[in-house]
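Researcher: Batch entry, complex prediction.
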Amino acid sequence: MADLIGADLATRTLPLSGFHGGSGAASLSAAAPATRLSLRAKPDAVAALSLALGLSLPTRPKTSASSHGRHALWLGPDEWLVIDENGADMMGAVASSGTLHSATDISHRNTAVIVKGRGAEVAINGGCPQDLSLGIFPVGACSRTVLGKAEVVLFRTAEDTFRVECWRSFAPYVSGLLNEAAEDAGN
Amino acid sequence: MLLIYCPYCEEERSELEFRQAGDAHIARPTNITELTDEEFEAFFFLRDNVKGLTYERWRHLNGCGRFFNAARDTVSDKFVTTYKAGLPKPDISTLRPATEATVETYEATESNAK
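Model: Structure tokens for the complex:
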């Protein structure tokens, strides 16, 4: 018991920790922990926020901007999901922008599944009605949409790789549904 | 699956991403404290429930999250047009082709349903 003194008692259990799944056509894995920001701002604040974040916030539908492991995803005309895979403090960065905006740290609200392989599109289309062909949904495209009964944000990071962001409480459902669809994707 | 054009995402998306949000173009009275109960009821509760062309608010809930307006035919479920919130009602005579085929309803083909 003496060992407990000074021990790290509050260990955080990540959703989908150690998760692996899928098939030969589409492999599934849990994304590494990242910091995330739900950012909302009027058009006149976009320039200053872009400067503070070190990337140009996209203003066209379904587009994203990436820079050194940080991704800004267009969700709506005044709404972005910003993901930093290096765990940087983005709340501090946007707070120093000096413009009117709304930023919420959602690092632990969301988690992500990486879907990779030649059957990645088919696996996601198992629960998502969007056209994910390369011409319509190119590399760098992103969109909030549905996967079965859960809301997800899709982000195409490579021709055969998608990042599927979902709320942590939906993670067992989303990963389970993707797993089923990935097994069908090989056929 | 019904495809709905979102004027903010600028493309057609599946109906699964959308929610209907009641009638469009209902102006909130400016003198709401002076309304009688009947007038308030008419503004707040009573809707036309038209058969045919109707103007509705829709929300791209699982997409960009924006509300927008749509002109929709309640018989055929066809979306005649969608437009951004805040824009005036579009002129439907310029949008509806005159040669549009009439929808075959049960009343038209089988009975007058009286």
